[in-house]
Design a protein that fits this description.
The structure holds three protein chains of three kinds.
Chain A: H1 4-11, E1 25-27, H2 34-43, H3 48-62, E2 86-88, H4 101-109, E3 123-129, E4 132-136, H5 139-144, E5 148-151, H6 152-158, H7 160-166, H8 177-185, E6 190-194, E7 203-209, E8 220-225, E9 230-238, E10 245-248, E11 251-256, E12 261-268, E13 280-291, E14 296-303, E15 308-311, E16 314-317, E17 323-332, E18 337-340, E19 343-346, E20 352-361, E21 366-375, E22 383-392, E23 398-407, E24 413-422, H9 425-433, H10 438-449, H11 451-454, H12 459-471
Parallel strand pairs in A: 3-7, 6-8, 7-9, 8-11, 9-12, 10-13, 11-13, 12-14, 13-15, 13-16, 14-17, 15-18, 16-19, 17-20, 18-21, 19-21, 20-22, 21-23, 22-24
Antiparallel strand pairs in A: 1-2, 3-4, 5-6
Chain B: E1 2-11, E2 14-24, E3 29-33, H1 40-48, E4 54-62, E5 65-66, H2 72-77, E6 80-83, E7 90-94, H3 95-109, H4 117-131, E8 141-142, H5 148-162, E9 166-170, H6 178-191, E10 197-202, E11 215-220, E12 223-228, H7 230-239, H8 242-247
Parallel strand pairs in B: 3-10, 3-11, 6-9, 9-10
Antiparallel strand pairs in B: 1-2, 1-4, 4-5, 7-8, 11-12
Chain C: H1 7-10, H2 15-20, H3 23-28, H4 33-49, H5 65-68, E1 73-74, H6 84-97, E2 105-110, E3 113-114, E4 120-121, E5 128-132, H7 133-139, H8 141-148, H9 155-163, E6 167-172, E7 185-192, E8 199-201, E9 204-209, E10 214-223, E11 229-239, E12 244-252, E13 258-267, E14 272-279, E15 284-293, E16 299-308, E17 313-322, E18 328-337, E19 342-351, E20 359-368, E21 374-383, E22 389-397, H10 401-409, H11 414-430, H12 436-451, H13 454-457
Parallel strand pairs in C: 1-8, 2-7, 6-9, 7-10, 8-11, 9-11, 10-12, 11-13, 12-14, 13-15, 14-16, 15-17, 16-18, 17-19, 18-20, 19-21, 20-22
Antiparallel strand pairs in C: 2-3, 2-4, 5-6
The chains are: A alpha/beta, B alpha/beta, C alpha/beta.
Chain lengths: ~475, ~250, ~450
């Protein structure tokens, strides 16, 4: 088969962000108990309510079992072999000048300049290195409009009331095993508050970077969009290549108050492990939004990294006329496994949700869409449309689709469609007859397959996402 | 320009072409006619380098050099263009993006500079006029949801854009209404030039009323059984293929 | 869940407790040695597996607690001849519900026991064997043994193997029917009458279609009004190379009846199987269909229509496993839910590695007519080969108000208009039913079910 070579190249893509930075770090010894949690909280100078909340989460976590219903296979995780806190040494940064230059160089290498004058116009960046936020750009400019965009730790210090009011209000610590673990040990993350009626003038963006070995990363993001406001938030992630698996268990909570709109985009490119499945990030993430009356929450994700992906960004459509959207591209190559999808819970009247999921399986990759559409009894006039397409690029990969539709209201309409296909020899020949090399043709067809999702991404991210998918195909000539 | 010598081709060990000889020079238009199943489309696909066909004997020479081992994309860059009988749909890929990629690959092959988006769009609009296509076609996905006639026009449009040296048109006239047929014929005639050759593969002589060929061949049962001038096509129109098949 | 650890629900006269007492009759029955061994092994399997628990993914939405702790007494325990009163009741029910469907053979079972007097064969033909399993055991023990297969691993299916006493054995001998004889139509009718003690039946159905044969097998389940009982059936169909079997389950259990049934199909190369499930009755009913397309070119088509009113729950679970190359499957289910009814559809298409050129499609549509009705739909795809075409679609919605208005504007009353539209919706599936007399019967039964007032159905 003529297509197989280019497909193999796709299936064995090289990871470009796998370097390790030499940064002096303040790392807590491996293992987890209440003292570790007190230490983390103490290092961050947290108020009592937060320490208490962490401890409650920890106690709850100890009673919980790791979920095993996902179509994922990985050896047991030893939670006592992980270090739960690592931060570049040097604290209380007042300006970028105080950041370890090695950390700055790391983000530059990743293509994320933190010096404001160099930053792409219209994107404010919060950079999280291992467990802590190292720099947040454009803060002052945003503050003029009343927008708070800061590291989570800073928000705890400066806006404890807001944090207290909304933390755990969408994802309670008892939600699931990984959310409970995150609630107990989360070290940093981003916090956004957009005041009533304000349209955030630039994309807000967080780049997460895991650097240290044997550490887990447990960031927590909380975005509150007050009535009638709008914010578009981008999230990117990378990690070094290491032979050991590293754990990433994040929680993201979105609160869209009346008439607000939050657009949350992710390009997840954690280290996926090598082609034999050695190393790579275990990515267990809980993301959920709560949409009040007439509010709208859109999740867009491009998941190309991680050895294991377990995430189901969802929306609680609580307010009448609220809207939830989920657009996803998930690529699993080599030995990657992804079990990802969404949960749309229709609670309010005339709520609407849209699900578009594109799964691409290559090499020995296993790709599962798992989604729940739940229409509660009171959700009169609810509408859902789901579309899940899979593209198989090899006969050793798998594509699985598990939608759960649960409808308890007789005026709602729920529709789900799914299909599975592969790149046809005819498509490849057609492209090649027009002079397009095979590997470019594969990349082009895969990108075309993902188009419905890419068009939901902000421009810079869309370009990055396309490059990410195409990266594997470069160097395939010869 | 193109020499086909004693060409034998099988599909899954079933012989389809059983010794085809053909010679075409720059500036010429040759028509290959024949009944269904005679091997016409196989010849077109083999010339373009489709991997599903095995050449078991004979050779195909472009400018005196064998191209049997040359990949489809290299053949395209060497100036061979195939207008597909059934153009393929590529969902989500915009026609403009597809064609810009193709054109630049071909231009690189010819040692020409690549075109940027602005130059490409200007060129594309100019060529769209040749086949009377709406510029909106550029932003639609390749062939997706196109009618039969639109797909065929799109093929001719691509040909106009890529400016091949040897264009093979596989049943480009089939299933077209008279307006679309004229548009396609105009497209072909506009491209006729002393350094370009055409192979028109067709079942009917209808297209040949508009594009006058220099030579007509009849392919039946894997062999060329008759050749002649334009009048052969008219004879076929009157008498059908039966008398020739019997002879083959 | 283990039976032994489940003693709380086994106290008293519960079904679970009754199951445990099954060991003695298994040993006591005068069975061929191999069958005794199979039953013992199945009992071991059941004891190890126990009843499914809500933690089992496949049983998440099927509440079986009132089956497990229900008062059902396994048929063996209550072994007593069917009374003349029960027979008379069964005759009345048959006369009322089933007209002559122009069958080749009709086997009738009343309260689990085969009734030769109610059964008939016409005309007699030698390419068809249709008899009760006990008869078959004495006449063709080896064929029965092969058809029973090995010990099933699911709890309820293991129980059926342990406890089945009778059932039907159908053998379609190939390759061609006698001159002038059409496709044989075999009708297996199970009637449950009202008894003082709620019984549990475990009917076993074995269908063996030799290569090249073509046949229609209908299983009908009827329950007398007010009868409380449990049917735990297991049907096994083996379709030989190039053979075609059409199979129908017409489920009209009583309002208090429980119906669990598993249908297992094995297909040889180029074999075709079509299944039609018509679920109209029962308090809780569940049909599990597992079709394995092991050989190249096999085809299955699974169709179903369920109309659930009152407080009924109706489940359909399908697993279609593609193993051979160039196999195809089609699944089309239509559900109508009214009142406080619940429906579960869980359909899996599994494509094994190497099952290239698989073509699998599934469509499930549900109509919710009441704000208190609930639908759980889980269409699932598990694809492990790349050169395949698989698709599924699921919808849950209501009657189109435009269509309703259109009918009303033509003078049709609202109730009648609704009924017409519902019938049209279900009709898509009914049209696929083979055998015109059967199709007419089902149309009639669905119409009368829709016309009944809510109080009559709950």
């Amino acid at each position: 088969m003529t297509g197989s070579k280019a497909l193999e190249e796709l299936a064995s893509q090289e990871y470009r962000y796998g370097f390790v930075s030499d940064v002096e770090a303040d790392t807590v010894a491996r293992g987890l108990d209440e003292d570790v949690i007190r230490t983390i909280s103490g290092k961050k100078g947290e108020p009592d309510f937060l320490l208490e909340w962490r401890l409650r989460a920890y106690r709850r976590w100890r009673t919980m079992e790791e979920p095993n219903w996902a179509k994922l296979h990985y050896p047991p995780i030893d939670y006592q072999a992980i270090s739960y806190y690592s931060a570049p040494k040097k604290k209380a940064l007042k300006s970028l000048d105080e950041v370890d230059p090695e950390v700055l160089r790391t983000f530059e290498k990743l293509g994320i300049p933190l010096e404001e004058q160099k930053v792409l116009a219209g994107v404010a960046v919060d950079a999280v290195f291992d467990s802590v936020s190292v720099a947040t750009t454009f803060k002052e400019k945003l503050a003029e409009m009343g927008i708070i965009f800061s590291s989570f730790s800073e928000a705890v210090r400066n806006h404890p009331d807001l944090v207290r009011k909304y933390l755990g209000s969408v994802v309670p610590y008892s939600d699931n095993f990984f959310a409970a673990l995150n609630s107990a040990v989360f070290s940093d993350g981003s916090f956004v508050y957009v005041p009533r009626g304000v349209r955030c003038p630039m994309e807000l963006s967080t780049y997460f970077r895991i650097n240290s070995a044997n550490t887990g990363q447990f960031e927590r993001t909380l975005i509150v969009a007050d009535e009638g406001s709008y914010v578009s938030y981008l999230e990117g992630c990378t990690a070094p290549m290491r032979d050991e698996n590293q754990l990433h268990a994040a929680v993201v909570e979105l609160v869209a108050l009346k008439d607000a709109h939050i657009k949350y985009s992710t390009v997840q490119n954690w280290y996926p492990g090598d082609k034999d499945g050695k190393g790579g990030i275990y990515n267990f993430v809980t993301k959920r939004g709560r949409a009040l009356e007439n509010a709208r929450i859109s999740w867009t994700q491009v998941e190309t990294g991680s050895a294991i992906t377990w995430k189901y960004p969802g929306v609680l459509l609580q307010g009448d006329h609220s809207v939830g959207e989920f657009y996803s591209v998930a690529l699993t190559a080599n030995r990657q496994q992804a079990d990802t999808g969404t949960k749309m819970v229709h609670i309010g009247k005339n709520t609407r949700s849209t699900i578009v999921s594109k799964g691409i399986s290559a090499g020995h990759g296993q790709n599962t869409y798992r989604g729940l559409v739940k229409v509660l009894k009171g959700a009169t006039g609810a509408r859902n449309h789901s579309e899940c397409d899979s593209l198989l690029l090899s006969d050793t990969s798998g594509a699985h689709t598990f939608p759960y539709l649960d409808v308890r209201n007789d005026s709602s309409v729920v529709e789900h469609e799914a299909s599975t296909s592969r790149i046809s020899e005819d498509q490849l020949f057609y492209c090649r007859q027009r002079g397009i090399p095979e590997e470019d043709a594969v990349s082009m067809i895969v990108n075309g397959f993902c188009k419905e999702v890419f068009k939901e991404l902000p421009m810079e991210f869309a370009v990055e996402a396309q490059k990410l998918l195409g990266v594997s195909l470069e160097g395939a000539v010869g | 320009m193109l020499t086909i010598r004693d060409l034998h081709v099988s599909v899954q060990d079933k012989p389809i072409l059983k010794g085809v000889d053909l010679e075409i020079d720059a500036g010429q238009v040759h028509a290959i006619m024949g009944p269904n199943g005679s091997g016409k489309s196989t010849l077109a696909q083999v010339l373009a380098g489709h991997g599903g066909y095995q050449v078991t004997r004979g050779d195909i020479l472009l400018d005196g050099r064998s191209i049997l081992e040359v990949s489809p994309e290299e053949r395209a860059r060497a100036g061979i263009f195939l207008s597909f009988q059934y153009p393929v749909e590529i969902p989500g890929v915009a026609n403009s993006y597809f064609l810009k990629t193709a054109l630049n690959a071909v231009r690189r092959g010819r040692g020409e500079e690549e075109l940027d988006s602005i130059a490409f769009l200007a060129l594309a609009r100019e060529k769209l006029d040749v086949v009377g296509m709406d510029p909106r076609f550029l932003s639609r996905a390749v062939n997706e949801g196109f009618s039969g006639g639109e797909k065929k026009r799109n093929e001719i449009f691509q040909m106009a854009l890529l400016e091949p040296r040897l264009a093979i048109l596989d049943e480009t006239d089939s299933g077209l209404d008279i307006d679309a047929l004229k548009a396609v014929a105009n497209g072909i005639n506009a491209l006729r030039s002393p350094d370009r050759a055409f192979i028109l593969i067709t079942h009917y002589q209808r297209l040949l009323d508009y594009v006058v060929p220099d030579k007509v061949y009849v392919l039946a049962n894997g062999r060329i059984v008759r050749s002649g001038g334009r009048e052969l096509a008219q004879e076929l129109e009157k008498r059908g293929y039966g008398w020739l098949e019997a002879a083959a | 869940m283990n039976v032994r650890s489940n003693s709380r629900v086994l106290e008293g006269r519960t079904y679970g407790a009754g199951v445990l007492t099954a060991r003695a009759p298994v040993a006591a029955q005068a069975l061929p040695e191999w069958l005794g061994a199979l039953k013992s092994s199945a009992l071991g399997t059941f004891e190890a597996a126990g009843f499914p628990s809500p933690r089992d993914e496949a049983w998440r939405f099927t509440d079986i607690s009132d089956i497990v702790s229900g008062p059902f007494v396994p048929q063996e325990v209550a072994r007593s001849p069917v009374s003349s009163g029960a027979l008379a009741a069964a005759r009345r029910l048959l006369a009322e519900r089933l007209q002559d469907l122009d069958e080749t053979a009709r086997l009738v079972f009343v309260d689990g026991a085969f009734q030769a007097a109610l059964s008939r064969f016409s005309p007699k033909r030698d390419d068809v064997v249709a008899c009760s399993i006990d008869q078959a055991l004495s006449r063709h023990p080896q064929r029965v043994r092969a058809a029973l297969g090995s010990d099933p691993h699911d709890g309820f299916q293991a129980l059926n193997t342990v406890l089945f006493q009778s059932g039907a054995f159908v053998h379609l001998a190939g390759p061609r029917p006698a001159e002038g004889a059409g496709r044989p139509v075999i009708h297996l009718v199970h009637v449950a009458t009202e008894r003082a003690v709620p019984l549990a039946f475990h009917p076993r159905t074995l269908v063996v279609a030799d290569p090249g044969t073509s046949s229609l097998v209908i299983e009908t389940y009827l329950g007398a009004d007010g009868a409380r009982y449990l049917v735990n059936g297991l049907s096994q169909v083996t379709v030989g190379a190039g053979a075609h079997v059409a199979h129908v389950v017409l489920q009209e259990e009583s309002r208090a009846g429980y119906h669990l049934q598993a249908l297992e199909i094995r297909l040889d190369a180029g074999a075709r199987f079509s299944s039609h499930s018509v679920a109209l009755g029962g308090h809780r009913s569940r049909l599990d269909i597992a079709a394995t397309l092991e050989q190249d070119g096999a085809e299955v088509a699974l169709q179903g229509v369920y109309v659930a009113r009152g407080r009924r729950q109706m489940d359909h679970h399908t697993v279609v496993t593609h193993v051979g190359r160039h196999t195809s499957s089609r699944q089309v289910y239509r559900g109508v839910l009214d009142d406080r009814a619940t429906a579960v559809f869980d359909g899996m298409i599994h494509v094994a590695p190497g099952a290239q050129k698989t073509d699998a499609r599934q469509s499930v549509r549900n109509l919710l007519l009441s704000g208190d009705a609930v639908v759980h739909a889980q269409p699932r795809l598990e694809i492990n080969a790349d050169d395949v075409q698989c698709a599924h679609g699921a919808t849950i919605g209501q009657l189109d108000p435009e269509a309703l208005f259109y009918l009303q504007s033509r003078g049709v009353g609202q109730e009648e208009a609704r009924r017409l539209l519902v019938q049209g919706f279900a009709g898509e599936s009914i049209q696929t039913l083979p055998h015109p007399p059967l199709r007419r019967l089902v149309e009639h039964r669905i119409r009368s079910l829709l016309e009944a007032h809510e109080g009559e159905t709950s």
